[in-house]
Amino acid sequence: MTSGCVYAVAAGFLGAAASLCAKLSLGADYLRVMCESGLRDRTGTPGGAAACGWLHPLLRLLCGGLLFACNAVMWTFFSKALRHSSSSARATVTVTASNFISSAVLGRVIFGEAHSALWWGGISLTLCGLLVLHGSSSQTFPREEAKKDE
Questions:
Q1: How many Cβ atoms sit within 10 Å of the Cβ of residue 64?
Q2: pLDDT bracket for residue 1 (50, 70, 90)
Q3: Cα–Cα distances in Å, from 142 out to 54, 90, 114, 133, 149?
Q4: 7, 41, 105, 136: most buried by Cβ count inside 10 Å?
């Protein structure tokens, strides 16, 4: 069961990483702004726009490739989490909670996004449900064959 949780948490993080790559490759000019600011900080001159002109499409293509790679590995880990977990509900809720938290952290670190109290209340309820799911013991029912032998 523990390995199922590890796979589920990793799948949730990889799903958030795939979303980040999609936002960077298909979204607004986040990569261009990051490139220009990184070159400006590194060289100390504001002339990084020319170098970022040819680097920007390459960075977008790299993020697009990472999007597909993260999704492929995420689905692999999710299927392993389903196989190693005692129930599909546990694996699914764990992936969902991990994805929400990872998305919040990556959004805050990369884009400076902030979430409302309602969002944090919702993720808290999701985590409480996750604790209930993981804390409950699975019930085993006697097989029909055992009843026939009696």
A1: 15
A2: low
A3: 66, 23, 50, 22, 12
A4: 7
pLDDT in tens, 47-85: 666 667 777 788 889 999 999 999 999 999 999 999 998
> Does the reported pTM lie above 0.85?
no
Structure tokens at 114: 């902030």
Residue 29: strand, helix, or coil: coil
User: Which is it for the CA torsion 71, 125, 86, 147, positive or negative?
Assistant: negative
**Cα-based angle 62, 75, 34 (whole degrees, multiple of 5):** 25
Instruction: State the pLDDT at residue 7.
Output: 95
Q: How far is CA 137 from CA 46, 62, 80, 93, 98, in A?
A: 61, 44, 21, 16, 22
Angle between helix 88-106 and 49-84 (nearest 10) = 160
Q: Which of 60, 74, 71 is nearest to 27 (CA)?
A: 60
Closest CA to 24 of 69, 57, 72, 73: 57
Is residue 31 within 8 Å of residue 63, measured between CB atoms?
A: yes
